Amino acid sequence: MRNPLSNKITTIKPSGIRKFFDIVSEMEDAISLGVGEPDFDTPWHIRDEGIYSLEKGKTFYTSNAGLKELRQEICNYYGRKQGVVYNPMTETLVTVGGSEGIDLALRCMLNPGDEVIIPTPCYVSYEPCTVMADGVPVILPLKNENQFRLTPEELEGAITEKTKILILAFPNNPTGAIMEKSDLEALVPIIEKHDLMVISDEIYSELSYKSKHVSICSLPGMKERTIVINGFSKAYAMTGWRLGYALGPELVIKQMIKLHQFAIMCAPTTSQYAAIEALKNGDDDVVEMTEAYNQRRRFLMNEFKEMNLPCFEPFGAFYVFPCIKEFGMTSEEFALKFLEEEKVAVVPGTAFGDCGEGFLRISYAYSIDDLKVAIGRLKDFVEKLRAEK
Amino acid sequence: MREKILKAIEKNSRIDLKELAIMLGEEEINVVNEIAAMEAEGIICGYHTLIDWEKTSIEKVSALIEVRVTPQRGQGFDTIAERIYKYPEVNSVYLISGGYDLLVSLEGKSLKEVSNFVSDKLSTLDTVLSTATHFILKKYKDHGTVLAKKYVDERLKMTP
Ligand SMILES: Cc1ncc(COP(=O)(O)O)c(C=O)c1O
Fold first, then answer.
1. What is the tally of structural domains in chain B?
2. Which among B4, B19, B160 is the nearest to A123, CB-wise?
3. I want to staple A53 with a disulfide (CB 3.0 to 4.6 A). Which of A58, A122, B4, B79 is the partner?
4. Does some domain include residue B160?
5. Do B61 and B17 sit in the same domain of this protein?
6. Do B157 and A291 touch (CB under 8 A)?
7. Parent domain of B120
8. What ipTM did this prediction achieve?
9. Whole-prediction pTM value?
10. DSSP-derived secondary structure letter, B158
11. What are chain A's domains?
12. Which of A21, A124, A172, A373 is the best substitution to test chain B (most B C-beta atoms within 10 A)?
């Protein structure tokens, strides 16, 4: 029989998390700090709107780009938060999670051989989606000493005449790094000089603890160059609803809608109704959850300080990214040993790019009580390793 | 800071104050002083424990009683409310808007004890016009805490 597979798909490595996932799933008594989604339930009033829409029989396709009212609310939200005006009819697309938006944006903008600069460590989908869209991923390793922010020098150094897209994903998964306004401003002249497009994955935008998140689309001249990817998964604890959106210049969004229409038809209708409620009346929920995350973040930073485990202070998302280089093990070895001996699962930094070597991603999407138990075990483990040395 | 402290200790009054200070990004001494000040100002009125008596072998019956009263000239509802809350078996007394005046919650050892209290003590008070007693059959949620069900983490154990 002939090989049924495409050459492209077989070159793509499976996600680095897979292996650990299989081990952890087998271990009944393991506790996990490896989860990348909120521990909160979707606030009840949002769920209620979803249920109500079902009761009313709202069970049909919506328009391809999404419910008009939802697109309007999304534009209101970006107006309110970033002071940027988007047109709900031409510059807005409701997607199946931020995930779909990332895929669509890459597929609609790349020609074979175009380079995409992917600062790492980062979320796992940018590189494979780039390859599937015939682009060439250019991995740009960020540095702990810069608190995993992207500097203008690093960006300049990664650009060639083939570069077309820069992916910016801040607040960042897995590092928790943020880019403040001045950090972004420093990149703009380079982006303009080399005529780049930016895909700005702002899925963690609400979870920013030092200053309010600033989107690069709000900087002068950048709206036309930016595809904003955002969604409801993290801010409103709605991962399972599979709902996100893309905002950007009409030229690109129009093509993304076309592809979305053929590939997906429309995002889930029930989720769209619930999302309208989230944007209209969900601000207080977001504030409350963000405060809870922030308290856990401070708790963890203090614990690391007490056990002398180096960790830059992350100001975003719900991850911390401590450095474990002192133990002379790879991230994967450390994570495996920690899992075997203490029954706590963390994700090795290398699951998010080679430059994550020497780091662990620890999620604080857990209650303080759970965190205390798990961090207590990390403390024991670290002490044991140090004593052995 | 006050609001954050209150929110935290309303959920867990036994929280370690050093830990609370870390979580709020404040100095411990400031948190301790703020709590002391709120105690002195009567903002913090007590530290109670939420108990699911159902799970013990101790018999307890709780009831909510709607009370209609005639307000007294010059004193409104305060005097009668005070008469009622002085009984130690009374847990809470609220002045309520709507169809009746006071909502009284109380606990007793048995249905009989509670009904005796209502018929002998409460309804015989001068200004009490009528009472309606509702016995609580099951507490699903109390003080923001779900009693009936335990939290299970249903998320996949590891996701990117
Ligand atoms: C940085 C980042 N972007 C995008 C996503 C995808 O989120 P969703 O498709 O649920 O909107 C995730 C999920 O973990 C993420 O961490």
1. 2
2. B160
3. A58
4. no
5. no
6. no
7. 53-138
8. 0.88
9. 0.94
10. B
11. 7-42+284-388 (3.90.1150.10), 57-281 (3.40.640.10)
12. A21
